[in-house]
Target: DUF308 domain-containing protein
Amino acid sequence: MKKILNEYAYSSLAGVVLGLVLLIWPSLSGKLLCYGLALAFLAYGIYRIVCYFIRDAVLTMLRRDLAVGLIAIAVGVFIFARPELLVSLLPVLFGLLLVVGAMSEVQTAFDMKRMEDGRWYFSLIAAAVLAGLGLVILANPFSTALVLMRFTGAALAVEGICEFVFSILLTKRQRLYYPPEDGGDFFKQNF
Model:
């Protein structure tokens, strides 16, 4: 459970940081994000190729390390060569990310309701807001790309904050729902 919470905290923090970067530096951040993504693909590709040569032959065959590494490097090189293509797709990707995040918040709301938390509807309201923001980004009613990137940044920051807050609330409710003396046995038996 602690590992899951840490993952939520890191991903929500990353969302807030990314949102603030897009909000503050909208024209610069698109290309920087593309170059950062390209570097990440290249590094991951190199990592998987190195793993292919140092790991057990059967394991690397099953994990497809060489093929995945070569594909990741190809994607990284493509992004370096054509960052404007990815920049033009970023708002669509971020809009979809917000809609998917809203679906996750719907589950959080119903998880909280199932554990008898009276504040479950706040998560449902947040899900509706996030879905609305995502749909606005996908519809792109903005006059310039700069305004679109700023709006996208603000929406991603809101999504990150919501994810963080509701994961904390859900965790607190889980602890009340399964007290430590029961929760330890429950999680040992079921996970």
Remarks:
- Residues 113 and 120 are 5 Å apart (CA to CA).
- The mean pLDDT is 82.
- DSSP finds eight helices and no strands in the chain.
- The two ends are 10 Å apart (CA to CA).
